[in-house]
Amino acid sequence: MTKQGKTLIALAAAIVVCGGCYAGLRAWNQGQSETDDTVYVTQLSNPTALTFTNQYGTYSFTKGEDGWTRDDDSDFPADQDALDDLAGQAGTLAAVRTISDPEDLSSYGLDAPSMEVSVTGEDGTQVELLIGSTVDSGDYYAKVEGGDTVYTIASTLPEALDIQVDDLIALAQFPSLSEDNIVSVTWTSGDSTVTLVKEETESEPAEDSSSDSSADSSTDTSSDSSSDSSEEETTILWKVDGQTVSEDNTTFISLMAQLSELEFSGCYDYHKQAQTRTDCGLDTPTGVLTVVYTDGDEEKTMTLTELLAEQKPVGDKVVIFGGGQSGCEAALELVLQGKHPTVVEYAVDLVAAANVPLPNASYLREALVFHKVPIYLESTITNIGDKTVTIKGKDGTVTEVEYDNVVNAIGFLPTPVAKKGKNVHLVGDCIAIGNLRTVIWRAWDVCMKI
Questions:
Q1: 379: Cβ–Cβ under 8 A, 6 or more apart, which residues?
Q2: What is the pLDDT of residue 46?
């Protein structure tokens, strides 16, 4: 190889190496420029304090071991997720544009900021942010208190801050309800009570006509497939006052849809003041809606009939919802068995119905007191949890009571097996819940007519 050829090869190799270096440096420079292009107005980690001022007022929150709390109101039920998001946005805020040599602050609305935010990081560093007027693009002017640089920021944070403090209240959540897990729905208004109950029945599957086919046409796999078809079938019926509700009943469909979408739209008063309850008419409510539902495979409540008929196992701690004659008799029976019942009654006294003889009512009240059965009067059950029942009194007092079973004893509805007709006469509780005297008088009247 000639000397000239060797020189050309060396030059070519040098060009390749230089080209590779150039490409590498260019890529590195591009990466650096992309990284360095982001300018942060604030950059704090794990904010622990947040104060903001907007058109509605000034509000301060501090985050401790138990989460965010409002500085001037410890009872405030703070929405932890919302405050985490708000503090996170204020603590790490990127600039859209930087104005290093700004004009007078009045040009940006920063002489009288529309919003102010103070955020403190976990290391104690505090940053105060001023937010001014909007830019034509929809962004906002902003600057750090004490700094000279003016920035434009996206509208995300200013829009998130333009709220009233009540928007940061954590609203109570209803349980997830649907036609699948609802067991019964009871509406009580005045002296009227309507109960919608789900009934499930198991039935043997219909025999497959193919089972009569000849042995010659059968195969070994037929035994496997037949085992699947031999399972019991479940039939679900919904009934009101003993009458079956059709599947296409529009009222029923609407009720289930509304129950599945139940939610609170806002908080009226979180201080649990008794006077507020009275002012809102909750001392004498228009109606009381009770929904019995299941959580997984475990039914949260049982009816009084299921308790008395021993249709379900009963644990040691039993909360009875309803302190009428039947509920109190059930509580007395349970305490005599060595169990620990608790009675919750909405009225001012136990066995408050007018048609109960005075000796019966007095005996039940005194017997339950004698056996030291916990009794909650003028109270209702607001939640049935996995292990405890939440009982709320008229004065707003909330008590958690442990339970193994909850018994629904808020009342019975007349459910005659046949409608009144020429040859059908109704006597006793199938007309209206009464006592021995009323059923005897009614039976006498029927006998005299026959």
A1: 344, 345, 346, 391, 392, 393, 394
A2: 93
The reported pTM is 0.56
Question: Residue type for 325, please?
Answer: Q
More confident residue, 108 or 296: 108
Determine whether 266 is exposed, middle or buried from the number of CB atoms within 10 Å of its CB (0-12, 13-18, 19+).
exposed
User: What proportion of the chain, given as a percentage, has pLDDT over 90?
Assistant: 44
Per-residue pLDDT tens digits for 354-387: 778 888 899 999 999 999 999 999 998 888 877 8
What Cα–Cα distance (Å) separates residue 101 from each residue in 151, 153, 336? 11, 17, 86
Pick 229 or 292 by higher pLDDT: 292
How far apart CA 336 and CA 175 sit, in angstroms, is 35
With tokens 């349970």, the residue in question is 334
pLDDT score at 35: 38
Nearest Cα residue to 258 out of 316, 156, 177: 177
- For residue 219, the model assigns a pLDDT of 43
Q: What pLDDT, in 10s, does the model give residues 200-210?
A: 776 665 555 44
pLDDT band at 42, cuts 50/70/90?
A: very high
3-state SS record for the chain: CCHHHHHHHHHHHHHHHHHHHHHHHHHHHHHHHHHHCCCEEEECCCCCEEEEEECCEEEEEEEECCEEEECCECCCCECHHHHHHHHHHHHEEECCEEECCCCCHHHHCCCCCCEEEEEECCCCCEEEEEEEEECCCCCEEEEECCCCCEEEECCHHHHHHCCCHHHHECCCCCCCCCCCCEEEEEEEECCEEEEEEEEEEEECCCCCHHHHCCHHHCCCCHHHHHHHHCCCEEEEEEEECCEEECCCCHHHHHHHHHHHCCCCCCCCCCCCCHHHHHHCCCCCCCCEEEEEEEECCEECEEEHHHHHCCCCCCCCEEEEECCCHHHHHHHHHHHHCCCEEEEECCCCCCCCCCCCCHHHHHHHHHHHHHCCCCEECCEEEEEECCCEEEEEECCCCEEEEECCEEEECCCCCCCCCCCCCCCCCCCHHHCCCCCHHHHHHHHHHHHHHC
Considering only residues 212 and 73, tell me which one the structure prediction assigns the higher pLDDT: 73
Cβ-contact 194, 187 below 8 angstroms? yes
**pLDDT tops 70 at residue 232:** no
CB 407 within 8 A of CB 301: yes
